[in-house]
């Protein structure tokens, strides 16, 4: 694969949320060059002063900076000519006719997968609290427990009971306010049941959770991945090309080294790395004493290695785990340093990856053409 092919592959993961098509397919990328460590792109938008311009440029920057030999991205914006606009509108009508999505998740949904190199670093706890926190901020949020073997989301959120299907044979997620939850723990007879699934059955389970669940309109979908770099992780980029990854590690060197494999897998699969969370960053007692029980620096080291943000450092607080085990999420507990840092983390994620604005430039043009054709 040539360098140009690699650049176009990354750019093809930047989607127009209104059309569900990528900017390469839509003909927006007019030229791309890579000289030294700088990539220069000529990008044609439907109108030069498109309100979505900043968002598109941000997406392009994040996707291309996955490449180790890219430090700077320069984007020259031009306006489409009439021929290009006509081609885009034809693509819009074609997409509307097809109306076929590979999953039941809208392409405008921000998909955040949360992964780790090994178990025991608090990935599921963070997934549950991040999803619940985004929902409490008013965002329509989904939480998919893709840790098929080691499901723990129902217990972390205090959910009991089993999910049902609607008349269209789609699974109905369990709802907590603005949060919709799906987990194999809500399908099995009880949480102590062992699932003896392997290989393709695991990726097939993920596919079913994305195609056979009535998710509705979501701002965010949080996916709690199993630890490691197995079938589910590799299926993610195929099923949800808009997915981005947060890597969870602890401060100790061993955890950081293992987490590096997950980040490397994401890069090889063209999944953007949104950032790193350092969990169990330190222990703080009720009297305010701090202890670095798992060492120091793992989060910073991983962040520096891949050139991605350190989104947050979440400590352990005294007496919070016992309450969490009983089904009370950390952000619903009494004030603690853990709760405060998780709330900061949630705010940071919402800033780093804000919900997609529905009314894009292309979407407005499509509506105008639709109105004109009906006159």
Layout of secondary structure:
Elements: H1 3-11, E1 15-16, E2 21-22, E3 29-35, E4 38-45, H2 53-64, E5 72-79, H3 82-98, E6 110-116, H4 123-136, E7 141-145, H5 153-157, E8 164-165, E9 171-172, E10 174-176, E11 179-183, H6 200-211, E12 220-224, H7 231-239, E13 244-249, H8 253-268, E14 273-284, E15 290-291, H9 298-306, E16 310-317, H10 320-325, H11 337-352, H12 361-373
Parallel strand pairs: 4-5, 6-12, 6-13, 7-11, 7-12, 13-14, 14-16
Antiparallel strand pairs: 1-2, 3-4, 8-9, 10-11, 14-15
Helix pairs in contact: 3-12, 4-11, 6-7, 8-9
Q: Could you characterize the architecture of this molecule?
A:
The protein has 375 residues and is of the alpha/beta class. The chain is 37% helix and 22% strand. The chain has helices spanning 3-11, 53-64, 82-98, 123-136, 153-157, 200-211, 231-239, 253-268, 298-306, 320-325, 337-352, 361-373; strands spanning 15-16, 21-22, 29-35, 38-45, 72-79, 110-116, 141-145, 164-165, 171-172, 174-176, 179-183, 220-224, 244-249, 273-284, 290-291, 310-317. The strands form four sheets. Strands 6, 7, 10, 11, 12, 13, 14, 15 and 16 form a nine-stranded mixed β-sheet that branches.
Number of helices: 12
CATH architecture of the largest domain: 3-Layer(aba) Sandwich
Helical content band: 25-40%
Helix/strand order, N-terminal first: HEEEEHEHEHEHEEEEHEHEHEEHEHHH
Mean pLDDT: 82
The whole-angstrom Rg is 21 Å
CATH topology label of the largest domain: Rossmann fold
| Low-pLDDT segments | 194-200
Count of the separate structural domains: 2
What percent strand?
15-25%
Give the number of DSSP strands: 16
**What is the name of the CATH class of the largest domain?**
Alpha Beta
**What's the CATH superfamily of the largest domain, by name?**
P-loop containing nucleotide triphosphate hydrolases
Compute the separation of the termini in Å. Answer: 48 Å
Q: Please state the structural category.
A: alpha/beta
Q: Based on CA inertia axes, which overall geometry fits?
A: globular
Sheet having the most strands: 9 strands, mixed
């Amino acid at each position: 694969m040539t360098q140009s092919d690699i650049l176009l592959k990354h750019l093809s993961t930047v989607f127009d949320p209104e059309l569900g098509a990528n900017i390469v397919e839509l003909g927006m990328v007019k030229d791309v060059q890579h000289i030294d460590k700088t990539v220069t792109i000529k990008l044609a938008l439907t109108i030069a002063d498109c309100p979505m311009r900043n968002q598109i440029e941000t997406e392009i920057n994040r996707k291309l900076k996955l490449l180790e030999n890219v430090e700077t991205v320069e984007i020259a914006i031009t306006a489409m000519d009439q021929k290009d606009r006509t081609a885009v509108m034809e693509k819009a009508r074609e997409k509307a006719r097809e109306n076929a999505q590979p999953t039941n998740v809208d392409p405008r949904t921000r998909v955040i997968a949360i992964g780790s190199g090994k178990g025991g670093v608090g990935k599921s706890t963070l997934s549950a609290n991040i999803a619940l926190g985004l929902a409490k901020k008013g965002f329509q949020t989904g939480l998919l427990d893709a840790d098929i073997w080691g499901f723990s989301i129902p217990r972390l959120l205090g959910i009991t009971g089993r999910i049902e299907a609607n008349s269209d044979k789609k699974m109905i997620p369990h709802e907590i306010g603005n949060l919709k939850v799906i987990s194999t723990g809500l399908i099995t007879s009880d949480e102590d049941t062992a699932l003896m699934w392997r290989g393709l059955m695991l990726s097939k389970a993920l596919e079913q959770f994305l195609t056979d669940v009535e998710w509705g309109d979501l701002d965010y979908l949080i996916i709690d991945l199993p630890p490691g770099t197995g079938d589910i992780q590799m299926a993610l980029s195929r099923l949800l090309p808009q997915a981005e990854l947060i890597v969870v590690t602890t401060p100790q060197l061993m955890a950081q080294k293992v987490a590096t494999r997950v980040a490397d897998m994401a890069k090889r699969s063209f999944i953007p790395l949104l950032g790193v969370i350092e969990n169990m960053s330190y222990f703080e007692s009720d009297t305010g004493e701090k202890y670095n029980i798992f060492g120091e620096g793992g989060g910073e080291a991983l962040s520096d290695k891949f050139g991605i943000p350190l989104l947050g450092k979440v400590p352990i607080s005294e007496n919070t785990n016992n309450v969490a085990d009983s089904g009370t999420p950390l952000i619903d507990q009494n004030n603690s340093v853990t709760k405060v840092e998780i709330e900061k983390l949630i705010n940071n994620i919402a800033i780093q990856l804000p919900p997609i604005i529905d009314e894009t430039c292309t979407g407005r043009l499509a509506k105008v053409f639709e109105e004109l054709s009906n006159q």
